Amino acid sequence: MSHLQITTNFDDSRLEADALKYRASIPSIHRFLEEKVGEPTGWLDAPVEMTTDQIDRILNISNEIKRNADVLVVIGVGGSYLGAKAIQEALSPYFKKHENGIEVLYVGYNLSGTYIKQLVESLENREFYLNVISKSGSTMESSIAFRVLRQYTQERYGLKAAQRIIATTDSEKGVLREIAHAQGYRQFDIPKNIGGRYSTLTSVGLLPVAVSGIDILQLLEGAKRAAIELKEMNAEKNTAYLYAIYRNVLHSRGYQVELLASFEPGLRFIHEWWKQLFGESEGKDKKGLFPATVNYSTDLHSLGQYVQDGNPILFETFLHFKDVAEDFSIPYSLLDDDRLNYLSKKSFNEINQIYKKGTILAHSEGGVPIIQIDLKRLDAFHIGYLMYFFMKACAMSAYLLGVDPFDQPGVEAYKKKMTELLVVETTAN
Amino acid sequence: MSHLQITTNFDDSRLEADALKYRASIPSIHRFLEEKVGEPTGWLDAPVEMTTDQIDRILNISNEIKRNADVLVVIGVGGSYLGAKAIQEALSPYFKKHENGIEVLYVGYNLSGTYIKQLVESLENREFYLNVISKSGSTMESSIAFRVLRQYTQERYGLKAAQRIIATTDSEKGVLREIAHAQGYRQFDIPKNIGGRYSTLTSVGLLPVAVSGIDILQLLEGAKRAAIELKEMNAEKNTAYLYAIYRNVLHSRGYQVELLASFEPGLRFIHEWWKQLFGESEGKDKKGLFPATVNYSTDLHSLGQYVQDGNPILFETFLHFKDVAEDFSIPYSLLDDDRLNYLSKKSFNEINQIYKKGTILAHSEGGVPIIQIDLKRLDAFHIGYLMYFFMKACAMSAYLLGVDPFDQPGVEAYKKKMTELLVVETTAN
């Protein structure tokens, strides 16, 4: 049995008819992906091809950081930030965060002067390492944050600063690679054929995640399992391809928004990562589902009203893990003045499951199409599996939509315009 | 001059024509809102009518909590959670959070067993108070969290537990009111004519926010200022009504998604609060703009691609504060190996402003309609002003759309169904 199940509330003869043209395209896209000629599809085999030496190097440096620092400062934006943050938030305890690792702070993903000033101040009296992550090495947010943090590291550690800076960057070129080489920083390579938003399960995501105390061997094991299971060409047996078909069918029926819904608050950044993956891969040529997210039951008291009764432009994808880390029973009360004793044999997670069931029932009755993605347990293995699943599904889905999953022309155009504007604005003053 | 400016990139003769029918409806809706007959519009005058005694009581209890506790645990969901959380995140430092107050933790806004177990464990060895907030007193998430925390408070503080529990609930009825009365908890009243999502600027939001160290007098001052300025019936002089017109015009032109965009990471929960306010007020009768949010520049590396080049179903509303708490200059580098010295006279916030300008230019060229909301400074006064502005704009906007801004039939229907399902599921086992 697969480690991930996918079901829908719209599986009928009409689905078969609407899915036909997508099913027909799958074999050729599948072969194209597998052949990888000139396409940035290095991520497809990365979990399987990663060597013990590569993993050991990540673990060794991670252990060195944990021994010698109170905090790891990760500098990155987009694909160099969201994946690690997502895994960390999903798998760390909510309050005592650093039991098996140390604190990991993220910077260089925004341009707030308040944020970077207060971040640097928070490093006073604490020992730290930097991990600067940038494929190109020239992205504005992370480049200027690195300039600040690098100077601060030199002030704090003098000649030993270079030992505390790890650069994760393109395996062949770029300004960060040059700097790291000249300064003697240790480096992790991002393979040329793996784009930013597909890079989480390489050293990009693995080093920060390992430092935060998460078991990266299990994470990779899950991704490897997914890489093997989802190599299947037959869409009936490949959940990633099924998901790609379902969302394209719904889009072709006129739905404009896909709402990813979960019932565990720690999944909030998995949602953000998913939004980047699908939004950047599919949102081009005036096409693409708009990716949005809700965290239930919280958002039943917010967007729930809209989903139930509002403009019927959306469908929901429920992402659910059956088992989670811990649970808590509703206590019995002698007084029962809140009249909740009828729940006192139940646990919170059991009630959460009932809410999931009730929400799907209510939204189904409200006419909302629903895709369900179910996994067994919220742990490193299944998060690794899920991320690989989403990447493979995204690549297939974008090709089914008729767009290139691996470029980002709008971002490039905007970056170019931005650089021009910066030169004008800085020379004007 | 108003404390908030509103501009658009689509202000032409076509706008005049499209806005005509909305402008025509404004006077009668305005009078209807002002007359408040039987409508839950108590929030309209709440900031002006709040007495010194009421404010002093909040400040006195807040000071007592700060003196006697390390942490305030706020129990609430939806309108009893998002507003306070939003203000706190917007106005607190990013790292050293509790300089003028104490830590405020939120619970009862989700059903995660992991979350509540780890929250209770985090209270060990720390002194705490509870503030349970629920208009009805019977919302599932907050009710069962209150049962747990109340028993834990009794274990920890014995006969003195009641002194550490503050109940904020309906001024007339409900199970929480009964419990608070019987147990001798101190109470804050939520006026009958103020609904959950319009209640932030009452004791619902003010007590937690005051405990976290934020100046609630300034917050109320801003809201009061907005209440006075936005009493204007002439839409040309009332920015809330202008915003209501603009978004309805764009919706009538076929845009389905409104994307609220900001450039300061701390505004993330202001976005969440805005989503609840507009989503729950307008998402009914198969109508309403779908409210979504982005935090730039972070999300220029995520949804930015979609906004620029994707399916043209959205318009953007930029929420911008000119001045923020702190700033940081890009340092000069002798080596200049990152080639960024051309920026070394600039500060992060200056670059952030240039990015805002560049983003608006790029998205305008991409054909995205843009509304700009500008305020002077990210501080308590302007957050108070902004929240009142959004509430007034939302009420007007929903009426212009032809829906009731103050009900939530979908949430009620779902709550009823959920309670039935819970009874079935709990008696079945």
UniProtKB/TrEMBL annotation, chains A, B:
Record flagged with keyword Protein biosynthesis: no
Highest rank taxon of the organism: Bacteria
Gene3D superfamilies: Glucose-6-phosphate isomerase like protein, domain 1
CDD domains: SIS_PGI_1 (cd05015), SIS_PGI_2 (cd05016)
Predominant place of localization: cytoplasm
Keyword Transport: no
Biological processes, Gene Ontology terms: gluconeogenesis; glucose 6-phosphate metabolic process; glycolytic process
Record InterPro entries: G6P_Isomerase, Phosphoglucose_isomerase_CS, SIS_dom_sf, SIS_PGI_1, SIS_PGI_2
E.C. designation(s): 5.3.1.9
Catalyzed chemical reaction(s): alpha-D-glucose 6-phosphate = beta-D-fructose 6-phosphate
Family, similarity comment: Belongs to the GPI family.
Protein name: Glucose-6-phosphate isomerase
Gene assigned in the entry: pgi
